[in-house]
Design brief:
Length: 273
């Protein structure tokens, strides 16, 4: 029941109709008896500054999730950035602090790691290949390095973006063997498509699947379709595969933790299954 004391959470984006956050948050709140509600706020692409001022006026709004195209500008509007939000300079989760300031972070990468672990794949000690050096590629790279991946190779269509990520990642995590890659993904335990290729059925693959070693796990960040052409082809070649949706599922618990709402004995994976 929504009462006068119910706390508000939101997801902001443009478009907004495709988002799953309200369903997963509200199911979590109901399951854990938390007096809060999450709503979708459609804020136009060019209107974030004005929208932010509106959010700022809502004193019972404790935080919000940020999706495309607002992740970069939201980082600029935050008062503080922490963890991967600070490393990457984009945010997807923003919390209002008791003093009214905004603290932003990026939980995509942590969600990916949690998703891997939920399926029994530990990134610690693994050699990981990431195709993509955009928001998702950056998020994955920093979270996998923070979770003790032994080596991370970055490949991207625009090579300068990959080189920039390699440089920043290597500086932040000097013990990780970080390198600039090509479309050849051989010699890795986990190979991830972190580009937007795969949304369309005719998209090419972001790397050469034929080079991937037979034991390697092939993973996606693309969520729709769940079974991307890459995952279909990888499965047909006998690889273990890992869905892009698991990255989002893995984030719920991280988001609740960031908002200070994580239940003591959370079984959030069940809540969003
Ligand atoms: N599962 C989740 O929870 C989750 C979370 C966040 C994002 N995602 C998904 O991750 C994907 C990427 O998002 P993003 O935020 O990283 O986007 P982004 O910052 O715009 O980056 C896009 C990436 O895709 C590459 N790319 C785009 N078109 C390409 C093409 N024709 N050929 C080769 N590479 C191409 C870009 O390469 P260039 O640098 O060369 O342009 C860049 O690496 C999207 O599908 C998004 O929905 C999923």
């Amino acid at each position: 029941v929504i009462t006068g004391s119910t706390r508000l959470y939101a997801i902001i984006g443009d478009p907004i109709t495709h988002v799953r956050t309200p369903m997963s948050f509200n199911a979590y709140f109901a399951e854990h008896g938390i007096d809060a509600v999450c709503m979708p706020f459609h804020i136009g692409g060019a209107d974030l500054k004005r929208g932010w001022e509106g959010l700022n006026a809502l004193l019972n709004l404790d935080g919000f999730i940020v999706t495309a195209p607002h992740k970069q500008e939201a980082a600029r509007l935050c008062d503080t950035l922490v963890d991967d939000g600070r490393h990457v300079g984009i945010v997807n989760t923003v919390r209002r602090e008791p003093d009214g300031s905004y603290c932003g972070t990026l939980l995509d990468g942590r969600g990916f790691v949690a998703g891997l672990r939920s399926k029994g794949h530990d990134p610690a000690g693994a050699r990981i290949y990431i195709a993509g050096a955009g928001g998702a590629g950056n998020a994955l790279a920093f979270a996998l390095a923070a979770n003790a991946a032994s080596a991370i190779t970055i490949h991207n269509r625009t090579r300068s973006r990959a080189a920039d990520l390699v440089e920043r990642l290597g500086r932040a995590y000097p013990v990780t063997d970080v390198s600039l890659g090509t479309a050849d993904a051989s010699g890795h335990d986990i190979v991830v498509n972190a580009t937007s290729l795969g949304l369309e059925p005719d998209d090419p693959f972001s790397f050469d699947l034929a080079t991937v070693s037979p034991q390697a796990l092939v993973a996606e960040v693309v969520m729709m379709p769940k079974m991307t052409p890459l995952l279909c082809a990888a499965q047909a070649r006998g690889h273990r595969i890992h869905y892009g949706t698991l990255m989002l599922d893995g984030q719920l618990n991280e988001m609740m933790g960031f908002f200070g709402l994580r239940a003591a004995h959370s079984n959030s994976a069940a809540a969003i299954a």
